[in-house]
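Reopening this ticket.

The earlier resolution said the output was attached, but the attachment link was broken on my side. Pasting everything inline this time so it's all in one place.
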Amino acid sequence: MMIPRRRNKVIVIGGGIHGCATAYFLAKRGQIVSIIERDHIARHASGVNAGGVRSLGRDLAEIPLSLASMDIWNNLHDEIGSYAKAFHPSFYLKVAIDEEGYAFGSARAEELERAGYNHEIWLESSDVQSRLPKLTTPTYGGFLVEGDGWAIPWQIVRGFAQGARQHGAEIIEQCNVFSLELKQNCWRLKTEKGFFEADYIVNCAGAWAAELAFQSGEPRMPLAAYAPMLAVTERKPPILPAVIGVLGHTLSLKQIDTGQFVIGGGVRAAANLGENSGEVVLPELVKSMRLVAKLFSDIAYAQIIRCWSGIEGYMPDNLPIIGHGKQPGLIHGFGFSAHGFQLGPAVGKALADLVMDQQPRIPLDAFRPDRF
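Inline output:
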C-alpha cells in the first residue's frame, strides 16, 4: 500500500495562471500549498494564448474582477519581480468598421453608463486614426482603454509559479490526477505519482476541471473544451502601438517587441482532451488574417511563420466558475472561456481568500458554481 505524502493544507490542481496565482497568494500568506500539474507549468491555455491584458469589452459581471486584476498588473513587479517585464502596458482599441459594429458600440456605451463604469472611452473616427495612423480602413470610432496591453503569457505564469516556490509552495509537474474523494474531512488524491492528502482542493484544472469536479461528487457542469487558434508573422517595422480588436468580430491583433504580429481573438477549433491536442483549422484562421489585412495594408503581405492552438474550457454563458463547491473544502476556478488570462491575478487572490474563509474584495455571485 502506498503511503500518502505529507498532508497539505491546500492542493491546487492545475498549473495555469489561475492555479499558480492562487498558490502564490496562499503561500505568501503562510499556507502549506502544493500545485499538481498534469503536464508542465503554463503548458495549456495560460501559456499559449495571445497574451492580451484587457479590461476592455468585459461582460458587466466581470468588470469588477477585471479592474481589481488590473490593479495587480499595474504593480506586478511587487509580486513576481523581474518576470513582470513580460507585461507591456499601452492601450487597447476596439474599433467599429461597419454599421453593425457602431450599433454594438452605441449599445455598449449606454450599458456602461447605466452601470456607472467610465474606464472605456469612446473615440470618434478622427481620434482613432490619430491613435493608429497606419490604419488603412475607415472606422465609425471605437472604444479605448488606456493602460491595457499585452504580455508574454508563459513568462507571467512562470513568475507566479516561482513566487509561490519562493514562499514555500511545492510544484509537482507531469502528475495526472486520476481521482479525488473526501474521506473524514480529508481530501485524498490518487495520482500517477502516488497519493496526496489535503484539507482543501482548489480546482483550477482548465478544460479538465469539470471531470475532476464530477469525480469528487459534484454535479456534472456544462464545460466544453475547444482550441482557440493563433498565428504569428515574420518581423516587420513597428506600426502598431496598441492591441486592437474589432467590434462585432472575433479578433485581437498586436505587434510585439520583436516586430512580429500576433493574430488571435478566440477563433476556435476542436480539442482532444485525451490526447492533449488542439486542431488548427486554417480556413477559419484565414478569416482573421483577411480582416487584419483590411485593417493594415502594411501587414497584408507579411508571412505567417507559425499557427497553433491551446486547450481551453468554455461555459455556456462565457463566464467562469469561481466559488465553493458542494463538497466541503472544494473550491473551483475554471471555465474562463478564452478570456481569463488578464483576470488571473485577481482570481488567484479571490480563491486564496475563499480557502482562508476571508471575504474576497470583489463580488463573485455571478460566477457561482451552482448557477447551472
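Reporter confirms the inline version is readable. The first helix runs from residue 17 to 28. The mean pLDDT is 95.
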